[in-house]
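[audit] Reproducing an earlier prediction to check determinism. Same input, same settings, fresh worker. If the tokens differ from the archived copy the diff job will pick it up downstream; this log only records the rerun itself.
[audit] input (172 residues):
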Amino acid sequence: MGLRKNLQREKDQRIIVFIDDIDRLADDEISALFRAVKSVGDLPNVIYVLLYDRHKVAAALARDQKDNGDKFLEKIIQVPIKVPEPSESTIRTMVENGLAKLKKCDNRSIPSGRRAHAILNNCITPLISSPREVHLLLNKTNFYYASIGDEVEFYDLAGITGIKCFCPKLYS
């Protein structure tokens, strides 16, 4: 028996397919994914949840399809839900809490106070605009600090790591 008929018989059960980070794919991969979802999108009792940055995906679709990417998305996406960008204060809080958590994981004496806040205000938070970037900074800072801990001050390392991650030309 075919997939469509099997899915139609299971009226009380739904299948939810989550596809995340679509905007991180290459343009041709984005187009292929959306064509595939469009071709099977009407399967009964199957719901697709697609997570992506609309501007990036629309631009990729426009380049690959030689068409208007926003109009293509409108044909496919039935219920778009826009998730608001986190505020600067939310990002700052995520950075501060993440670095504080890294500090607590270590018994070494770590400087804080004015110097730490100056580094946070001038070298780290102005460079970060998304939760993904916060996690990148924290993961890299944790990795470097685990490698060279006693040889460097924690917030100096976090500031340099921020510059290395988000301003590679300046770092070089």
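[audit] rerun output stored. Observation attached for the diff report: The longest helix spans residues 131-148.
[audit] end
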